[in-house]
């Protein structure tokens, strides 16, 4: 997953230095330009640096927040009816977008990027500022939260939740890099980064403060899943006499191995499904 570059300088300058003093008409014009750029993927809420770290672009979040601040609450033309903020309604897709959006309750909000080859199964929701890379499968009941960054050829299985973040503007969003497999009912929150080709077994829940126990390297990790790591839900004994009496244990995600041929076979998707 590489950083996206493009003609953004004037937008960045505006939302960094000029937003507070700009007249309403200019703000609305700039907000529309930003949302268009986000949808095209030439601007992103966060990008990977050449060193591999993830940099949050606070000015993008300021622009998204401006979209909400300058919106009105209106009725929208949507199956079954909808009421939302006027500048960030649901997007419409056509054949030219190269995205397969299966009918049945899915919504992708204005300002979200879906690359060509993405498949979204119903019902799912992709929020403003999120980016989903080429060839990724978004399965049923998945939430891709605001500004979450999802790479190419990722599989987000049924009921996966990727938490969103707009404030504080400097906070890192959830990041799922290329070729990651995220099992059913996993939850990723608070800016957790899942590196390339990692595998999360069903039910893994990670926050920025969750300790991940790497049994392979005998170390403890926080806030990031290493490249190719296979993580499963685990437990460890709770401390204290009371916990001992009741036999209580605490949730503890565990790296049990790193990706190999057998793992690849287990996570391969039939191409026809895409």
From TrEMBL:
Record InterPro entries: Hexapep (IPR001451), Hexapep_transf_CS (IPR018357), THP_succinylTrfase_dom1 (IPR023180), THP_succinylTrfase_N_sf (IPR037133), Trimer_LpxA-like_sf (IPR011004)
> Does Protein transport appear among the keywords?
no
Task: Describe the location of the Tetrahydrodipicolinate-N-succinyltransferase chain A domain by residue ranges.
Answer: 22-69
Protein's UniProt keywords contain Transcription: no
Signal peptide as annotated in the record: none
Pfam families in UniProt: Hexapep_2, THDPS_N_2
Q: Which domain of life is it from?
A: Bacteria
Under Gene Ontology molecular function, one entry of this record is: transferase activity
Tell me which UniProt keywords the record has, alphabetically: Repeat, Transferase
Which NCBIfam families does UniProt cross-reference here?
A: PRK11830.1 (NF008808)
Name of protein: 2,3,4,5-tetrahydropyridine-2-carboxylate N-succinyltransferase
Q: Which organism is it from?
A: Ornithinimicrobium cerasi
